[in-house]
Amino acid sequence: MIDILQWTTLGVCALLAVFRIPSALRGENRLMFGIFLLMTLAILLSMEAPYVAVDELLGGTNIANLLLRFVIFGVILLIGLRVARGFGAGRALSWIAGKPGVTALALACAAVIVTFLLMDTQGSSAGLKAIAAKDARNAALVEVYGAFGRLYPCYIAVVLLPTMIRTVRSRLPVLIRLAAVFLSVGAVGLVLSLSSPIIPPGMGFIRFIVNYTAVLCYVLGLAAVWADKIRAQARRRNPLPSTESSFSP
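Above: the chain's sequence. Below: its structure in token form.
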């Protein structure tokens, strides 16, 4: 099931990135293309074979895992900006792009870098499993490193969640409300990922399900937003009485 969820998420992200290439080349909404492209890269780096291949090129010291963390920070920041601006959530935007958001991102980056440097990272290992198995000290540092890596995405999720809930309850077009549902589930999934350290080792698959479900829901939410944009453009070409979306494509 984990493999199916992983490959499904990768396939959806890659497909959406490919579909966005023509519009990106025309200079239209390149931010969305960047989001799908970075999501595809993040999922590839979370898979063992691509991860090991990339990390070996970088020296075999798990720099690829640090790169993965920064890619995740980047994509969650772009999603936060895109959604906050699109839904007209000025307060959420200030918490993401303003001083609080910049501070949260800087602290998250510093925390993962410092923790990474404290570990014995020699030997490529997807998910740092082999690093955690070296000794108790490294096992503890891997858990702390993972927790720091989840904090910033959770911060963005919590900031956006109230706007998504209000949108779900609104009378906006179905696609926009559907997008808000997916984005809300994705946000809840990110918050639940904070419970990873208390999940028993024998039930580690729950971590993967929660993480990949969150990613897939974010992707589907953004895809629904894109679909609403296409619908709105079609209706502008062929005007019909309708309820206009307040989402800004």
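The chain is about 75% helix and 0% strand.
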